[in-house]
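A quick aside before the break. I want you to see a complete sequence-to-structure record at least once, exactly as it would be stored in a machine-readable document. Don't worry about memorizing anything.
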Amino acid sequence: MKTFAELGFPGRMIAVEGVDGAGKTTQVHLLRRWLEGQGLKVFLSEWNSSVLVKNATTKGKKSALLTPTTFSLVHATDFADCYERQLVPLLKAGYIVLCDRYIFTAFARDTVRGCPAKWVRNIYDFAALPDMTFFLKAPLHVTLKRALDTRPRLNYFEAGMDLRLSNDTYESFKILQGRILEDYLGMSGEFDFFSIEARDPVESQQAIIRKLISANLNLQDYRS
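That is the input. The structure line, written in tokens, reads:
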């Protein structure tokens, strides 16, 4: 798999990954504000953002009809729609595209849910790799507390109850998130993630991210 730069796209993609509670959304929104403040062409994309597919996903979850395989295929359909309609055209137009999660989310989550790793990766083999991927890394007990502090309750699927990991919702969520974290750690070296210590203050994390981007991209190329 090649990056968008290696494929000759004028734009660049920056992805931010991590388990629930790592602080991905906070960092990617701060990053967008910083880049826009410099007059750069920026677009923020979120995982599972296709309008065409979101309704079907919601109905499937409510009816508890989605198996790990159908879950994976629905998410892949959602991503493919977003990729073709939004990401590729914007990268061709010279934008910096920020992704709050990218295909690595599927690689980790779908595999943990029981889908063969090779099968999952083959589904997404049409997608190019980001030019930079930041992995927000923290111990599981830290991200679990953050994730649960922002949720009044865990729903059936996000807790992994469909996987029969435990009869206790919290314990099931803990096991699921731990396995996802292990997958991310395994991918970190394979895909050259830039690891960011997610326990550090938000401002410190953002400063490191900005410094790395400035060192790796000529930001002047992406002015409006």
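Two observations worth writing down. The radius of gyration is 17 Å. The longest strand covers residues 12-17. We'll return to this after the break.
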